[in-house]
Amino acid sequence: MKKRVSLKDIAQEAGVSTALVSYVLTNKEEKARVGREMANKIRKIARKLNYQPNYLARSLKSGRTDTIGLIVADISNPFFGQIARIVEDEAKRHNITVIFGSSDENAEKSADLINVLLNRQVDGLIVVPSEGSEQQILQLSERHFPFVLMDRPFPSIAASSISINNFGASYNAVEHLLRTGRKRIGMIAYQTGLHHIAERRRGFEVALANAGLKTEKRLKLARYSHLREDIRKAIDQLRGGKHPADALFFATNSLAIEGLRYISELGIRVPEQLAIVSFDESEAFDLFHAPVTFIRQPIREMGKAAVQLLLSQIADSERPPEDIRIDAELVVRRSSAAS
Fold first, then answer.
1. By the 8 A CB rule, do 151 and 86 touch?
2. In whole angstroms, what is the distance from residue 19 CA to residue 11 CA?
3. Cis omega (within 30 of 0) on the bond before 271?
4. Which end of the chain is more exposed for a tag (fewer CB within 10 A), N or C?
5. b/e string for 295-332 if b means 16 or more Cβ within 10 A?
6. Distance between CA atoms of 51 and 4, rounded to whole angstroms?
């Protein structure tokens, strides 16, 4: 059997110490003040000798695996796909490998994924929690395992989280519709107890109330498992009667995309008959005949902050939880033009 190439082999050929080789191959040459020319020489020798790091030995020595887990709610949703990409890129900058999983908005699958990742001995977790997963998150907290909640905080659990100001973003979107002359604004949201959706609903209701408008029967809920059916029913109800809605606010991009399909089928003119605003962005919004106004979440900032916060927790187990809120941006386009 061919002998495994070691750091010592590389050090001998380069004429330096094994410690210096270790610094370079773990991307810590600046800390050790290794010159760029020497660092490039060491990496070239490592490639020539086909050096393969012994991650098992390294993890046994350090007590870390240099891996983290990321659990998103639905990887088929472009929003979570972007989060995964940004988290992976930011982790790579710190020489950390990311193991992905998608709960598909299912608490049981979320529990299974957490157990699998813990058994893989990841150093920490970034979790976009599904509904009904509070107990799983509480158990992580009680065992002092490093984790960060992303996009969806649980206010009742003392845990680090990265999210946006959902209430403020929703409030601003409704205020924008009011400024364009809309008075009969409806909202379609998921039927869920998750905090971020509840805050979006609250922002909608408070904005209308502050404008002296009634919210009764203006908020409609759709089930995740019956999306198409419930959205069509909601739009029929909001557009029916003597005073049909003149604007719709969708709580997520997946709700908006399904709603836009039905609005097109009905032949409703946007924005002349109905203004549209959605939370989150989607490439589909650019393809609609009236480009859709949307609330842009700062995904890159959120993803990078989540990784950095998790690494800080891994480095310091006594670090207190941080709840970081970031403002979102309303991107105004033709779908919400003045009536």
1. no
2. 9
3. yes
4. N
5. bebebeebbbbbbbbbbebbeeeeeeeeebeeebeeee
6. 8
Instruction: Specify the pTM.
Output: 0.79
Render 31-49 in DSSP notation, one character per residue: TTT--HHHHHHHHHHHHHT
Q: Which amino acid is at 100?
A: F
- For residue 293, list its beta bridge partners: 277
Which positions ≥6 away from 189 have C-beta within 8 Å?
Answer: 197, 200, 201, 219, 220, 221, 222, 250, 251, 252, 255
For 12, 151, 165, 254, the CA distances from 282, given in Å and listed in that order, are 54, 17, 20, 9
In the block, residue with structure tokens 């209430």 = 167
DSSP for 64-109 reads --SEEEEEES-TTSHHHHHHHHHHHHHHHHTT-EEEEEE-TT-HHH
Q: Which string of b and e fits 261-272 if b means at least 16 CB within 10 Å?
A: ebbeeeebebbe
pLDDT tens across 10-69, in order?
Answer: 888 888 888 888 888 777 777 667 888 888 888 898 888 887 766 545 554 555 788 999
Chain-wide mean pLDDT for the chain? 90
How far is C-alpha 319 from the geometric centre of its chain's CA atoms?
23
Nearest CA among 131, 239, 245 for reference residue 191: 131
